[in-house]
Task: inverse folding
């Protein structure tokens, strides 16, 4: 069985972004795709924000709509906890950078934070890291190492 790698849905070419577009990443799909099983998640669509939807940003740990100030923090955190708890095991995760839901740095998105809380040792990268061959190979190595050691998949978090 191939490793299961969570991925921000827009990186696979799914038209789930706030403006109805996607952020297909050919490095992800061409180089990683044949070796793993992707588990596609768009937290903002799944929490019910719709497509298109107003842009969001983080204010500290709060997620708010940029124009209206509508606060999505509590619904997103509740969704993220439940969604992550319902996920079967994962061996890695590729997140979309610069997203208030999916980004890892400099500020971690709310959904990415929920994933990291559940699996602190899960190999996680942003898609831009995959452009660097050394970082990409290190991520792939850790994804496959986790499978053989049972790091993420057999540690009882299912
Ligand atoms: S970055 Fe995350 S929340 Fe935003 S469109 Fe992509 S998958 Fe959805």
Result:
């Amino acid at each position: 069985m191939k490793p299961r790698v969570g991925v921000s849905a827009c990186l696979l070419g799914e038209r789930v972004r706030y403006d109805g577009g996607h952020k297909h990443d050919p490095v992800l799909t061409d180089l990683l795709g044949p070796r793993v099983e992707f588990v596609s998640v768009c937290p903002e669509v799944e929490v019910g924000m719709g497509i298109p939807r107003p842009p969001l940003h983080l204010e500290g740990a709060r997620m708010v709509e940029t124009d209206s100030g509508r606060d999505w923090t509590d619904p997103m955190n509740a969704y993220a906890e439940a969604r992550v708890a319902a996920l079967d095991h994962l061996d890695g995760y590729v997140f979309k950078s610069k997203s208030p839901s999916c980004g890892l740095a400099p500020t971690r998105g709310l959904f990415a934070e929920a994933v990291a809380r559940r699996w602190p040792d899960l190999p996680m990268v942003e898609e831009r890291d995959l452009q660097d061959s050394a970082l990409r190979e290190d991520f792939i190595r850790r994804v496959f190492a986790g499978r053989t050691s049972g790091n993420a998949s057999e540690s009882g978090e299912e």
About this structure: The longest helix spans residues 133-149. The first strand starts at residue 4 and ends at 8. Helices lie at 26-32, 43-46, 73-86, 110-118, 133-149.
